Amino acid sequence: MVLFIGGVIAAAFNSIIPIMWAPAYMIPQAAGVDVQKGDRLFTIVFAG
């Protein structure tokens, strides 16, 4: 049971993180801006 709960938590974490990061890259790129991880625009979109 503990192993199952640990696996469920790991699977949830692995699916949520890409969903959170994708808009932070896609929105500026759609506007024609090259995105770097340390950029201020990336941080604003990721935090918002």
Would you mind describing this structure in some detail?
The structure is a single chain. With 48 residues, the protein is mostly helical. It is built from two helices and no strands. Helix 1 crosses helix 2. The protein is elongated.
Tally of individual helices: 2
Q: Indicate the mean pLDDT.
A: 79
**Distance separating the two termini:** 36 Å
Shape: elongated
User: Main β-sheet, in a few words?
Assistant: none
Portion of residues in beta strands equals: under 5%
Structural class: mainly alpha
Number of strands: 0
Rg (CA only): 15 Å
Percent helix range: over 70%
Sketch the topology as an H/E string, one letter per element: HH
List unreliable stretches of 5+ residues.
Answer: none
Write the layout of secondary structure elements.
Elements (H helix, E strand, L loop, with lengths): L1 H29 L9 H8 L1
Helix pairs in contact: 1-2
Short account of what is shown:
This protein is mostly helical and 48 residues long. 77% of the residues lie in helices and 0% in strands.
